[in-house]
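Hey, I'm writing a tutorial for new members on how sequence and structure tokens pair up, and I'd like a real worked example in the thread rather than a made-up one. If someone can provide the structure for the chain below, I'll link this post from the tutorial.
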Amino acid sequence: MKQRRSRLIDDFDHLSVERAIAELRAGRAVIITDDDRTGLIAGVESVGGDLAKSLADHADNKAHLVLTAPRLRRLGVERQTAGAIALPRLDQERIATLALRLDARADAPVGATSVIDRAGLELAALALLIPAIIVVPLATPSIAGEAIQSIRAEAIEQYRRHAATHLSIVSRAPVPLEGASLTEFVVFRGGEGLRDQVAIIVGSPDLETAVPTRLHSACLTGDLFGSLKCDCGDQLRETVKWMGENGGGVLLYLDQEGRGNGIANKIRAYAFQAKGLDTYEADEVLGFDMDQRGFDFAAEMLRQLGVNRVTLLTNNPEKIASLRRSGIEVAAHKRIFGRETSANVHYMATKRDKAGHLGE
């Protein structure tokens, strides 16, 4: 009976995080608790109108803005961890400046963060929002009766690890592709935010050998529209063609747009790139590290397909290391290239020079 109760508590925590993700994405505040401490949390990009007024009603001059280390460095504050800036009043223009403006500088001391602050940043990341939040400490959970989602900080901290192993196949069917007519699409559900992930099995790969495998993060602009700013679409199509001509393989098409930042933040970063920043500098302005992606759930997808040993088609050494950490044997790796254009040559050189990508 004790084991069943523990599992139900774990499931409730997981569900609470997913509900909190939905609330933040919908522009509403949530409550995060840590032992006897409570905080009202809102994403910076959603603060305005009624939400700003509601936060101000409870702030009592004690609210603070929590920013990541990359964003603080852009503000001129050298830190390796997130920090908090006091908000004596909820000045929306000041908040937007500190969180988003390219030429902004810190205008007040930066303090340490609490467990609630850090959990709130993680929740914003899971919701694919800008990683900047407003936190209003509450002496008591006095507004818990106002239909605001409440979640334990510990549940947020454990969510990614729990989600990585909780995927299931929900549908599969043959879908012939150009250059690979014998192809099956397998759709998984679960993982972070219950987003669907797709495995494309090309041909009939031999599962007793090192299966040719690619982890391909979704790129709407490149994969679908043929953007010249990246080489993603070329890599995707070249992978399918190569697998079709070389005995098959497995391509995992992962819902991790913009290196895990989400499509909205990817387009925000493109706007900064148009002003002369490189791909990583643009992400830093928004408060992101070089890469937010994790590939442990990709390893779980491979295991469910019976793949435990791979030849990885990638230029990214982190994908190799991540699969190995997750228990998948990477027997070898093969580079995969797209076309070089005047619009992406700097992008590919930046990935090589700053992130250690191979041969780009």
